[in-house]
Known about the structure:
Blueprint: H1 2-25, E1 43-48, E2 56-59, E3 65-68, E4 72-75, H2 81-92, E5 102-107, E6 113-118, E7 124-127, H3 134-140, E8 153-156, E9 164-167, H4 169-175, E10 189-192, H5 202-219
Amino acid sequence: MIQGCTGTNKMQEEEALSRLSSSANSKYTATLDSTYKINKGDKIEILVWEEPKFNTNTTVSSRGTIAIPLIGEVQVTELTIDQLKEKINQELSQYIKGQINLTVSISSSNDMQVSVFGMVTRPDSYSVPDETSIFKILSMAGGPNNKANIREVRVYRNNSNSSYTTLDLTKSLETGEISSVMPVYPGDVVYVPQKKNYVREMSLFLRDVSLLFGLFSILNL
């Protein structure tokens, strides 16, 4: 039984590493249609014919803005491609007289997500615009299930296929030092391993679950 559990844990960990690698190599989704609204983390390319000083290739920041040379910072989130073109045209009209030949290309990025694998209720990838508490991420994933080992939660940093940080979440909850726990960032993978020993004292299990779900109920208010 223990050998089988070890094999399952290894497979789940390899899945997490595979997800991290594919996330790093798959930057863009399919071509976007005219109804798509720009999100944080999207890639935007702006080309102005015969006015290369305005050309821009950038990523929408966590504030929902992009920076265009000479024009400055422009708020772009929740705009469609046509709305963005109109907004940029208005800005460019202050610098360019006559017809403006403008091309705007947008690609949606998968970078603004945190993937949660292992012993959680809903393993999946969750949209995260900026650094976020790991407790919030686990709450989005429905919390740990009854096989979760929350004393050895692993966080794989984006762009790193091997190194990880192990977090003892129970210790943090017991000491009340929740805010000091290392945050997770877009592109990270969180892996919640399975307990190596199914036979645990029931009081310890109930304490862990009570602490975590008590916090999750607060986060979801």
